[in-house]
Amino acid sequence: MRYLLLSLLLLLSSCTNKRPAFNYFVGTWESKTGGQIILNADSSCIVQNVNDISGAKKSFQGKWLFRKKDDLDENRCNISIWEDDGVGYMLFYISGKGLFGNQSPWYFFQYIGDPDDFKKYEFNKNMTQY
To answer: Are 45 and 60 in contact, with CB atoms under 8 Å apart?
Structure first.
């Protein structure tokens, strides 16, 4: 009975809808393939050697925006990045650890190809600088 109660409590605690905040994403984010995105508190950013949708490496300075809702007004956090000249644009989905992806540490990603294949181009925060 005790184990059943403990299991129920753990399940319920994992169902909470924890959400990241803007300040969490300020800092340097890195991919396993050498891409780097620096998100500054003033909403400026530096993108270095990041693959675009065609697979080409991109480097530029721009702006970023943390959004708590997606384009369909769903409660799905994401990060939009665009070049200073307004031409280039990247959208990254936000997820976390845990069974439902709703717990820190957070990371952001783009799908590679079909989202049903679950292949992700993932960026994790460089915690060595903090």
So the answer is: no
**Locus of tokens 């809808």:** 17
Instruction: Give the Cα separation of 36 and 27 in Å (integer).
Output: 10
Name the DSSP class of 53: T
The 3-state DSSP class for residue 95 equals strand
Asked if 120 and 111 touch (Cβ cutoff 8 Å), the reply is yes
> How much is the pLDDT for 16?
47
**Residue 95 corresponds to which tokens in the numbers above?**
């997820």
Q: Which pLDDT value is given to residue 10?
A: 45
The confidence score (pLDDT) of residue 81 equals 94
Distance from C-alpha of 59 to C-alpha of 74, rounded to nearest angstrom? 30
Mean pLDDT per 10-residue interval, the chain, length 130 residues: 49 55 94 96 97 87 87 76 87 86 87 88 84
Q: Which residue has the tokens 């059943």?
A: 4
Count other C-beta atoms under 10 Å from residue 51's C-beta: 17
- Which pLDDT belongs to residue 15? 44
CA distances from 65 to 5, 23, 40, 53, 89 (A): 42, 12, 11, 19, 11
